[in-house]
Amino acid sequence: MKIRNGFVSNSSSSSFVLFGVPLDAKNVTNSMLKNNRITAIGCCLDEGLDVFTVRTDEELAFIKACEKLEKLGHSCFSLYDTFLYGEGENTVDLSKLPKSGTAVLIGGDQAQGSSDGLNDLFENYCNNNELVDEKIRKEMQKYLRVKKLKNLKTSK
Predict the structure, then answer these.
(1) Per the structure, how many domains does the chain have?
(2) Does 4 map to a domain?
(3) Residues 20, 112: contact at Cβ < 8 Å?
(4) Is 67 helix (H, G, I), strand (E, B) or coil?
């Protein structure tokens, strides 16, 4: 069961506003994940966009696996280092903005069925297709093994 914070209506979607810096998945750091700074906008679900916070290495691995498996060479996910998202905090600390690069302001309709965890990602993007599910899991394992090896090397 999903719990929704904030405004809820009879509609199957709700409006959202996001202010952040576009990111490539390879530039996401552990501290960004720990601080819930990474927001992903995925493909359009039936009633709106899939908008969610990337919280774990596994969720990031899913996104990277999808990027690798995309036939056209681009992912169906856009990632943002987020300074403002949703309806909670309505101010941005300008001192936290990067000194270079471009921040973007995005708004739209967030699907009520937006992903909230790895299980939802598989449900929303694999559509019960075991072949796709298996390919994504194999790619995820490759990424997670490489990350674990890097962590072991840096801890020595």
Answers:
(1) 1
(2) no
(3) no
(4) helix
